[in-house]
Amino acid sequence: MADIYESLNAMNYMNAVVDETIRLYQGSKIERIPSVDYVLKGTGITIKKGHVVQIPTYAMHRDPANFADPEAFRPERFLPENKAHNPYTYLPWGAGPRSCMGMQMVKWLVKLALVSLVHRYVFHTTELCSSN
């Protein structure tokens, strides 16, 4: 099992494809409900206890200030040599101590499913696909 895990993690381009797919098609939203009133530093804005705070990840992931050509599917942006973006602009799993506990397991299962599909089936493009 350790060999499979290491092999999947070594597949940099597949990892980048998964990250880019999640960037464009995130399956959930990030919300928090504060247990106490919280004042945002330097703004004077107070978030009241019990109010729902939602992080606009859809907008963040499609903002040209965060990702060049944000509507394009470009997995290369997540390759190790290109990961120069601000880590808090890519938040499909949240961040910090309250980030998604199942992130690693979900990513591992998605990669395992992709490898199984590619291993079992032959995929072809159609004339509707562009040549590049």
UniProtKB/TrEMBL annotation:
It is a peripheral membrane protein. GO terms for molecular function: heme binding; iron ion binding; monooxygenase activity; oxidoreductase activity, acting on paired donors, with incorporation or reduction of molecular oxygen. Heme binds at C100. It is found in: Endoplasmic reticulum membrane; Microsome membrane. It comes from the Eukaryota. PROSITE patterns: CYTOCHROME_P450 (PS00086). SUPFAM superfamilies: Cytochrome P450. The keyword Cell cycle does not apply. Keywords: Endoplasmic reticulum, Heme, Iron, Membrane, Metal-binding, Microsome, Monooxygenase, Oxidoreductase. Its main location: endoplasmic reticulum. One of its GO terms (cellular component) is endoplasmic reticulum membrane. The keyword Electron transport does not apply. InterPro entries: Cyt_P450, Cyt_P450_CS, Cyt_P450_E_grp-IV, Cyt_P450_sf, Insect_CytP450_Detox. Its cofactor is heme. May be involved in the metabolism of insect hormones and in the breakdown of synthetic insecticides. Belongs to the cytochrome P450 family. PANTHER family: CYP9F3-RELATED, CYTOCHROME P450. This is Cytochrome P450.
